[in-house]
Amino acid sequence: MRKFILLVFFSIPVLAFSQGITGIRWSKDGNAYYKVESGEIVKYTLPANTKTVLVSMKDLTPEGASASLGVRNFVFSEDQTRLLIFTNTVKVWRQDTRGDYWVLTLATRSLHQLGKGKSTSSLMFAKLSPDGKKAAYVSQQNLYVEDLASGGIKALTTDGTRKFINGTFDWAYEEELSCRDGFQWSPDSRHISYWNIDANMIRDFYMINNTDSVYSRIIPVEYPTIGQPPSPAKIGVVDSETGKTNWLAIPGDPQQHYLPRMEWNSVNEILVQQLNRKQNESKIYSCDPATGSAKLIYSEKDEAWVDVFSFSPSTAALDFRHSFVWLNNKKEFLWMSEKDGWAHLYRATKDGGKETLITPGDYDVIDFTAVDEAANVVYFLASPTDATQKYLYKTRLDGKGKLERVSPAGMQGSHDYSISPNGKFASHVFSNTETRPLREVIDLKTNNPLGEKEGAAPSLTVSGSKKVEFFKIKTEDGVEMDGWMVKPKTFDAAKKYPVVFFVYTEPASQTVRDAFGMGRNRLFKGDMAEEGYIYMSLDGRGTPAPKGRAWRKSIYKKIGQINIRDQALAAREILKWPFVDADRIAVWGWSGGGSATLNLMFQYPEIYKTGIAVAAVGNLLTYDNIYQERYLGLPQENLQDIINGSPITYAKNLRGNLLYIHGTGDDNVHYANAEMLINELIKYNKQFQFMAYPNRTHSISEGEGTMEHLSTLYTEYLRKYCPPGGR
Question: 446 CB contacts (<8 Å, ≥6 apart)?
Fold first, then answer.
């Protein structure tokens, strides 16, 4: 249900060769970076920021081919002599994680395609071994290793099927735990650790393709709904020469636990994170890859749920994002926890003997960024005084330092950084509501841009008046909420205007941020401010704003209740504003926001007169077990909470104008939600407008003319039932 993932707590390592959000890949020494430009891979040398072509289009043209490879992603071998190139990619659920892989030997400029003889675009997560002699990859749910010198390919697993999965994951693991790349090389290049997911006990949900043939085609998706046990998971260590697998003996019933994170620490140790089914207890085991024995070294409990701090998915097709940030010659690691009421960084010894809080204070760490262990410094993103913004901070790695802001004082808004391995430079992205994302490579100590090409800060002037206004509003329950609004361009305080609320309200998304794109409605054909709408959004309790654990986890077992009440009570306060027309109040949202739209229309029909719900969960019992059980509990124990949060429970209360939109090929929020809700509305003779988009997924983006049609539908409906303009 993660349609708009706007704030997530990540745990990734410094020095990871990641392109990340800033779109570049650092050199090993940190004194240069690489990126794809005009079909070539170029190198920028710092601090002069001078550009040279590292790999030309000619280099990227296979022998006998008429066109060069389109580089979707790339990564160097550890010795920097080879380049692994990801190309010809196709989407698997959310991301392009399947495609073709080529190895370019830089000295000879020779290209070698991995997996020759296998189907086009069938390889996943290819990785070069640390010694650079082999490559491993997944194809058709099996794991393979290939010798780069001979081209010989060996299957390390042979039992893979659609529902017995080696080296990658099933739908729920990918969607809700950010698990896609499911294997890692050992440091000595002799073994590979990998996940095995047995989804045979998971029932299929059947989607039906009615458009590509005169006969319908069934598309099965292994999909465990709330109340169904997890797919059993285990982790094996396979010898890359013999193909023999040794399984890690992690305690606990596999049908009552998840294994979301795994990583080699040394040739003799693998660390694995385990979550119980309710996801309110996290354990880290130190595992011996030779014997399979597992020793508990770290555990944490929460009365609600324990967040799994995830690695970024932006380049997951090539980079396994590490779960642990190692310190002190791998005797310690960094970890994220909310155990003191705030999201903070801790350093823990891997023997479980000592733990040190290194970011103390009443604020949240939003995102770990980097460690400079030699300088005793850790960098992270936070915003202690404004939950709508995000800045780079640093403190001492030993926990004895003060919080220091690194981001420039004059750049108010949202910042992201990718810091070079040597800690001297950073790729920096900045935006706010009126500033498009500005990218620059900077000297981290001075914040000065390097070179004219990448310099963003000198042009940081925004002309004209600020259009997006931020505000705070307190409800009768005493809850203070952040909001933004865009008023009509010809606003007259003596007139009354319609209000359109954009909502999400669930733990997967924060909608009120000081970042570019806030205040803009991509579905509206035209200019809402020009036509005379007030457009706004509010973040209530349960949204992942950096306001502390209590704020975020107050929604536990109360999705569809506490978040809906917060939105409605805030709207009641807004209706008191003299320039708001109470007869023209509209609300819209997508995915979880679609669910919120339905709940607001049904539970508070006296407030919301018009609603547009896209890809909504109408019945919370239909959604997947990992997401729903994390936030709602188990229906075997608290079914009434789930019923009380479901829009379908209140459908009989509809009084206003409802436009309900869903794609029939939605593998995330199934089309069954639409038909269940439609049945309930029919039962009570509730009139509404419905639009099904054949074979479209959760994004409703596939097919010729789709976005134009959806935008037109949305806009015309809003104009008709919530007319614009002051009165």
Answer: none
